[in-house]
Amino acid sequence: MLCQETIAEEGGMATQRKRYSAEFKARVALEALKGHKTVNELASTYGVHPAQITHWKHRLQQEMPEIFSARRAKREDAHEALQARLYQQIGQLKVELDWLKKKAGLVS
Fold first, then answer.
1. What is the C-alpha radius of gyration for the chain, rounded to an integer number of angstroms?
2. How many CA atoms lie within 13 Å of 106's alpha carbon, on the beta-carbon side?
3. Long-range pairs, 12-19, Cβ under 8 A, ≥24
4. Can you tell me the distance from the alpha carbon of 75 to that of 72, in angstroms, rounded to the nearest whole number?
5. Which residues contact 38 (CB under 8 A, 6 or more apart)?
6. How far apart are CA 88 and CA 85, in angstroms?
7. What's phi and psi for 43, nearest 5 deg?
8. Does 28 have pLDDT greater than 80?
């Protein structure tokens, strides 16, 4: 769920810094967005500072529309890439056909 990482300080002492997974952040932010519990209740439940939960919640609200639009944009980009590849292949085949016709003496 969460990982911890050691960070050295100037005094030579090492402290533990909490690192949370993306799944954990998303779950906590979604619960905060739902509003069934207060931010302080969620903070005590998950052991995270309330300001951090609020930050994750705002970030989720800002990036949510991009989640759905990104999927559509990827699909459109894939379609355009396929279309460009196919047009390139058609052009190459046409050039090859014209060359073969010329070599065979079929072009007048």
1. 28
2. 6
3. none
4. 5
5. none
6. 5
7. -60, -45
8. yes
